[in-house]
Amino acid sequence: xxxxxxxxxxxxxRFAVSTLWKVMMSEYYLPKNxxxxxxxxxxxxxxxxxxxxTGIFVLMYxxxxxxxxxxSVNKTIMMDVAYGWVxxxxxxxxxxxxxxxxxxxxxxxxxxxxxxxxxxxxWITGFxxxxxxxxxxxxxxxxxxxQMSYWAAQTITTLFAKIPFIGPDLVIWIRxxxxxxxxxxxxxxxxxxxxxxxxxxxxxxxxLYAVRIVGSxxxxxxxxxxxxxxxxxxxxWPVFMAKEYFVMSVFLLFFFFLAFFNYNFxxxxxxxxxANYLQTPPHIYPEWYFxxxxxxxxxxxxxxxxxxxxxxxSMFLPLFLPWLDKSPYPYISGKHRPMFKVxxxxxxxxxxxxxxxxxxxxxxxxxxxxxxxxxxYFIFFVALPIISYIEKKKVASGGGQ
Amino acid sequence: xxxxKILLVLVVIVGVTYxxxxxxxxSIMHKHVEExxxxxxxxxxxxxxxxxxxxxxxxxxxxxxxxxxxxxxCHGLKAEGINPPMDAKTAAMSFGVVPPDLSNVASYTDEKFxxxxxxxxxxxxxxxxxxxxxxxxxxxxxxxxxxxxxSTAKKVEGEELVKEACGRCHSVKYQKIYAETPPSNxxxxxxxVPPDLSxxxxxxxxxxxxxxxxxxxxxxxxxxxPRVGLTKEAxxxxxxxxxxISDPHKEQRQKVGIIVLAYMLVMVGLxxxxxxxxxxxxx
Lengths: 401, 283
Hints:
Shape of chain B: elongated
Largest sheet of chain B: none
Order of helices and strands of chain B: HHHHHHHHHHHHHHH
Radius of gyration of chain A: 23 Å
CATH architecture of the largest domain in chain A: Up-down Bundle
Number of helices of chain B: 15
Structural class of chain B: mainly alpha
Mean pLDDT of chain B: 95
Shape of chain A: globular
Helix content of chain A: 55-70%
CATH topology of the largest domain in chain A: Cytochrome Bc1 Complex, Chain C
Number of strands of chain B: 0
CATH superfamily of the largest domain in chain B: Cytochrome c-like domain
CATH class of the largest domain in chain B: Mainly Alpha
Largest interface: A-B, 50 and 49 residues
CATH class of the largest domain in chain A: Mainly Alpha
Number of domains of chain A: 2
Oligomer: heterodimer
Radius of gyration of chain B: 26 Å
CATH superfamily of the largest domain in chain A: Cytochrome Bc1 Complex, Chain C
Strand content of chain B: under 5%
CATH architecture of the largest domain in chain B: Orthogonal Bundle
Number of helices of chain A: 16
Structural class of chain A: mainly alpha
Low-confidence stretches of chain B: none
Strand order of the largest sheet of chain A: 1-2
Distance between the termini of chain A: 45 Å
Strand content of chain A: under 5%
Largest sheet of chain A: 2 strands, antiparallel
Number of strands of chain A: 2
């Protein structure tokens, strides 16, 4: 260990900061054949930090009370507090953009086979983070207590009623009332500002720890040992981060454009009407990042039960990707898997179609289109084991590329 | 340029999704609104569905007499020192809603609409439950009354306009304007308490509001909102005011937005330069 004096040396003896720095940053090596999509992991952390910081500021003026919530957001924060609107806009837009970044981050993981052995723990902790983030977004969306806040919460909590035996009681337990009311607001608030962010922090730590153990995947899915990466790769600090800062800057340019000039997608006009449990809005839809799953739920329009099962499956099937697809090298990265590429692009197109359909009224032609696209969603997860089986046989017979 | 190709794919995916969930979805969800606007050619400041009017060149002096005979049992006209016969609370209890003071009504209400309104209030407002009955006046009397109302009216703008034209039923509580008629009376009269107008512009948008105010039944059949016959000028002034109060920091937002974007643009340049420097010897 190199000798250091002063404060850093003092701290080093007691806290091993320079070792920590080396392990986490300067001597953590990444492969060279990665593209800018590998920067999206750090972007999620950036957006999370933005959410926490803006969240703390809006928390200072927000009132978790069904009589005061709407005005505390739309009057106090948006109009009275100096620059309160900046924090609200940035918080709302960041919540939305978080899912854009997450989808890209997860999509990159799927396309390049980053969920495969030995990175199962990375994938699972990442998936848990996605679920936690979804829960945080869902609870947070109720807080402004607008019409869409209210009816989205009402609709989604009603889904739990379909669970056999305990369903109806469970719904009341979740809401703390027979309908979504003050009790629901305060508990969603509590979860949104304490438990859920705390869990996100913990799982982020585990996720990062796991990545430090197994290392990053690369574009070609070539398995590399730590020594190989050290020899041929780049250190996380400063080389990777130099690129990361550039990606961050471009991202933030785009992000602040949205926050200041194009924010309606994250702040639905209908939500500027206060919650009214007597008046259902003509169209109820969740925020855009839940639309695809919501459409799978509605897609089986002839059977609510079937829709609910499909909905749960659509959200949790991705968790099992490492076991659905076990094809070995050279069939790790989608780049070198012709058959995988076909179902991948069908999956991406289908996910977009589901997202768009999820907002449209589910009638006539759209209902049938929703049904077909919902079925196609599952084709990916059915085809994956088959493709991987064929590829495994190819490798066993000395094939491959 | 592999990275740019990936970026392009990403931009296309995000762009198509955005187009689908914003412009496309809204155009489909709000189809009935556009259809109604197209069908009735809204906003129609001629109120052409009510038909024509006789020449409205009445005599204000005769109108004053007619006004005192037919109107003052319910309405006041403070500009001429005529007080309403009842206080607001009693009036609200008797009629369901406080009858308007008519001092300035002709400044923001179209005269053709006023004619049809006095002739048959329920038909002109398209609100069947309206408290004011048809008075059976002849065309000459109506024209005289309109001439009189025009002679007393002074132009009202912004907050005054919203108070006079909307404030008997609607509150604008973020501006500390509260509906003249108590909410409990309104609920009985209209079936519900009308929405607060503080941030209605954000919820509904100008395009919708202009058409809705012009002909409420066309956009929201069965609504308790009566047609009030605002002139083009008054409608535009009202929209300007509602826009200002719903988004008071618009100017600040645009200014700060430009500064932030400019700062980020500089950061893009600096970080790119640093990346170039660090990566010079790599590859």
